[in-house]
Amino acid sequence: MTISGIGVSPGIAIGKARVIKKQAVVLTGILLLNDEEITIAIEKFDKAVAVSVIEVEMMMNNHDALQGSEGVEILEAHIELLGDPQIREDVVEKIQTERKNVNDAVIEVIQAAVEVFKSMDDDYMSARAADIEDIGNRIVKNLTPAIAIDQDYEAGTIIIAEDLAPSDTISMDIAKIAGFATQIGGKTSHAAIIAKSRGIPAVVGCGADLKSVQDGDMLILDGQSGSIIIDPDQETILKFEAKRDSWLKELSLLKSLKDTPAKTIDGTEIHLFANIADSAEMENALEFGAQGSGLFRTEFLFLGRNDFPSEEEQFEFYKAVALKAKGKPITVRTLDIGGDKQLAYFNFPEEQNPFLGYRAIRLCLDKKDIFITQLKAILRASEFGKLKIMFPMIATVNEIRAAKAILKEAMQTLTDQGTAFDKAIKIGIMIEIPSAAVIADLLAKEVDFFSIGTNDLTQYTLAVDRMNEKIKDLYDPFDPGVLRLIANVIEQRHKNHIEVGMCGELASDPRATFLLIGMGLTEFSMSASSIPVVKNKIIKASLTEARKVYEAVMQMDNSKDITNYLQEKTQ
Q1: Is residue 106 within 8 Å of 91, Cβ to Cβ?
Q2: So which residues are the catalytic ones?
Q3: CATH of 271-569 among 3.30.930.10, 3.20.20.60, 3.30.2290.10, 3.40.50.920
Q4: Using CB atoms within 10 A of its CB, is residue 431 exposed (0-12), middle (13-18) or buried (19+)?
Q5: pTM given for the model
Q6: Cα(528)–Cα(141) distance, rounded to whole angstroms?
Q7: Going by DSSP bridges, is the β-strand pair 499-502/523-526 parallel, antiparallel, or unpaired?
Q8: How many other C-beta atoms can be found within 10 angstroms of the C-beta atom of residue 549?
Q9: What is the pLDDT of residues 271-315, one digit of tens each?
Q10: Fewer Cβ within 10 Å of end Cβ, the chain: N or C?
Q11: Other C-beta atoms within 10 Å of 412: how many?
Q12: Which residues face 333 on adjacent strands?
């Protein structure tokens, strides 16, 4: 039997299954009777948090191999979340006002926060729900300490679970764990990110079929294709052992490519950037050979707090990223909230279609004070690095002109104050709405660069909610309609002499590399760990052959034929 999921960390694992079933945290419904019990409950919460912090710190100290990697950054984020005053304030309020016992108060506060993040349409943002859930489970565990889950695994074990918390993945003994598979999860989940970082083959999003795996079953897990074979015969095992040896040789090559220029064999230079959210991610991206950042998501500074960050706080945040980049370019996307990214301290209107509503640039143009504060902070930070400003969700020429007018006002204010900034800072937009792709020729006259956001562009072009399980198979960036829009945008690079990059998930898909180069794309931005894989494809490609691939794809009328053809060409 073969199970299909999403391959998120390449490599072949061959071994026996260990099925992990975690005990769910449950509400008790018990109410506190008096002030003394309330005081004890709050003290119990604070003690559990303190113990949780110590546990996370011990994990960091005991995993020297993770220093400088995503694992340490995630654990540092967990410590920050454990000390988040908003979480404590909400828990204490439930204990004092609603007389909830501490177990129930923690569960309800964490569940509410998890739901906020899970509802977000941005894959990266929704995956952060795992961090909140992880620290919540840790606190609950330390409220009522129990016997730890047995982790005495045999060498070559393949972990099977409904889901894995970030700390579960970080604490895996890679000397014994050959790989893992989960029922849920996506490419941007922390389990996926850490699996890539640690070199653990992994498949996520396998669905209910994974429940058929039993403890001790012999498995083959392919982290590239996303397939899991249960009880394979000897011939199949030998075939995948050879494939595993081949992958290990390729992995050794990939690790040596950090300082290798991303040039095709006929001399075309391709620029590879990283999608980041803070200075730590910028530093990590450089370790993978990133030439800067093609997407700096600024909204993370605005989430999980009680009020909008001040200009000074934003300035320090952007400055820190600029300094970490060491002179390499950083594309700063202005505030992209609304729709899926709600703020607890901002009263968003109720909307029937929030993803098509009051969000991103639309909100910023309406709330000029919020927008101009951010723009001033970015401009000030431009003195410390090579920053560019990018506006999200632009649909019309009038919107970009309005945004530029406010930017000009911010520049004038800083000039009047005598504050230094890069007066020649480059201005660009995200191309993620079909109308923007169609009128790319008009928009190109207004800006210095485009960045194609293929995630939303695909969703809006095909009218597919990519979070809807019922129609998720319709979400396909290789659809001819989507590819034609992308090609039209890239064409404007030559006609209007502007920069065009891509920061959506398609940029990191090695099946698309030849196609995109053939279209004329020379700037890719992706998760840092994907850079060596894409670079390896680039240095084996020729521009002449890539153009032939592009021309062939443009003659095809369905995504299945396109992906099969590209898969064959990129092997």
Answers
A1: yes
A2: 190, 503
A3: 3.20.20.60
A4: buried
A5: 0.68
A6: 33
A7: parallel
A8: 21
A9: 999 998 888 889 888 988 999 999 999 987 887 677 899 999 999
A10: C
A11: 10
A12: 297, 390
